[in-house]
Queue: 2 jobs
Job 1
Amino acid sequence: MKNELTCDRIVSQCCLKAQAYGLVLFGRSFSHRLISFFTENSSVADYYKDNVFKTTGIVAQIETGATKNKKIKIKTSAERTQLLEYFGHSKSELVLRINRANINEDCCFAAFIRGAFIACGSVTSPDKNYHLEFVVPYLRLCNDLITVLEEMNLNPKHTQRSGYHVVYFKDSENIEDLLTNMGAPESSLKLMGIKMQKSMRNKVNRKINFELANISKTVEAAGKQVSAIEYIDKHMGLNKLSKPLYDVAVLRLENPELSLSDLGKLLNPPISRSGVNHRLDRIVRTAEEARE
Ligand SMILES: [Zn+2]
């Protein structure tokens, strides 16, 4: 999905700034001592470098370590100061917050969030549960991010995990909206596809449950009929029943598992489901009356 987000797109100048701002602000570090970013994805590393260069003219350094991780840094103190000032931050800031001046227009919100998501966001496979999150090291920054997301008519949740602040979404609607907004419509469609499959599966399960419930109702009714027939046989004799009732009673004793319509088909001549139902009802009532 990050590949989809970092692919070339036409972005207006205002949005480009907002996007680069989201990327650097939510990177690993953003202070005059250190401005850095870590990723395993080389197209994300290039994207960071490209965005920083296009907006500020500063060339970030990409280092590939022993692991697959790429570390991107703004090398000199002068460049870091220049970058901070470009986004309206100062060296002496104690608390890191979102500088709203960098998110000028309505159009810039999505670009800013796209940058932030590429920097510190992740989404888990919807095969399991829908989950999209941003991991932020500072509380005030996290609260500012929540405000921006809420202004985009989203409904983020907030929790803490090993010292980090996590802004997350669990419901698929919010996640789809966010992905589409950020410019990952393919990922959003994929997510919706999986959701549709899931709801189909649920429908099938409901249908099976419904049929099982019907089967158990049939079994329950058949049990009641069989015990009535056995009672009549023991206390009155089945031959006391009229011919039509006698035939159904014998058939039911031999076939306790059959549905009413299948029983009807076995009779000679065959009769309808409701005909069978009517006769069995009379047999059950006869036994009940005899028991009283
Ligand atoms: Zn814009």
Job 2
Amino acid sequence: MLILITSLGFFIRNINRLRRNINIGNGQTEPITNKPERWRNMLRIALGQSKMVTRPIAGTLHLIVYLGFIIINIELIEILIDGIFGTHRIFSSAGVLYGFLIGSFEVFAVLVLISVIIFWIRRNIIRIKRFREVEMKGWPKLDADLILYFEILLMSLFLLMNATDVEFQNMNNGNIISSFIYPFFSDYSIDTLHVLERSFWWTHIVGILIFLNYLYYSKHLHIILAFPNTFYGSISKIGRLNNMKSVTNEVNIMMGKAVESENSNDVKFGASDVTDLSWLQLLNAYSCTECGRCTSVCPANITGKKLSPRKIMMDTRDRIEEVGKNIDKHGEFISDDKKLLGDYISREELWACTSCNACVEECPISIDPLSIIMDMRRNLVMEESSAPNELNNMMNNIENNGAPWPYNQQDRLNWNE
Ligand code: SF4
Ligand code: SF4
């Protein structure tokens, strides 16, 4: 009980920290309208994994691990009740139904084990390109591997727990897989088997509670955040850029349609740090699974430019965490002379983007790296007047000639002569 309460306490503390960090975003978001469509998106994309299966091998393996993990954790209800009330397999009185459920869990456990091993081979032996990019070195790689080891351990413990449970084996109801493991323990005394079963039981439940608390520090937070992320994800037409309220307001002031307010001078255009982004963009960053599907289709990345949309999301998350720790330490954010733009994401990366939207289309959980890139570019252009020469020339031409070309408006129809 103490372990359960402590781990739930830590989990709630981390959820509160997550909410606080996401809410440091002050940027504008589109209104959350059309809830029926949003619910459909969440059910189709997050629950139904519809975008995962566009890559059949990874998608199917992921589906097995995802379903297996959810289904096997139903067993957790029984484990928790047994742990709290000192009972043993409290639901076993359900007879055939119980056998069917435990049997299904055992089959899923084996399928999850196989899938996770294939995932590990893809990452560590075949070394698929999108897992080898520069941003996947160090902690991100270790994190991805650790989760695979965790899953192997939890599934093995579940099967071993069943295999060493003499009472369960004697029931011969649902031990579809564990009955084949049981003979390996046939030389052990009943007392030893009991100790083993309890050890596997304890390690299994403590392992799940550790996993729960590890989520916050891992890309695997997506198993929770994929749901709100797909619900709140943009439902506008793909490729449509949002209007900046700050610009509309400035234009209205210039045209006499609005009056300048006292804090007009504090208006900021675009984003240079995470506090300028919207809560949805920050939710996106926390939801990123680091799968690299976006980067693998990014034309800039494919042609060797220094841009990876996955890195944009990872950098954003790292910076939010840094700002969050700063707030934890000082009670409020104290400037640390750092910014997302420049210290994490370079101008070169931002200007390499073709704004093609391929990353947005490809993301399996509706993340929009392009919106962050565009907001940071807007900041570069409108706050720092900093853009590549080609763009500056074009913008000057539009300003002077009303067209992107360096010709006088009167000469427009010269080609016609
Ligand atoms: S929108 Fe930009 S970041 Fe996304 S795929 Fe296209 S070029 Fe890459
Ligand atoms: S943004 Fe989406 S596609 Fe890109 S790494 Fe994150 S989850 Fe994968």
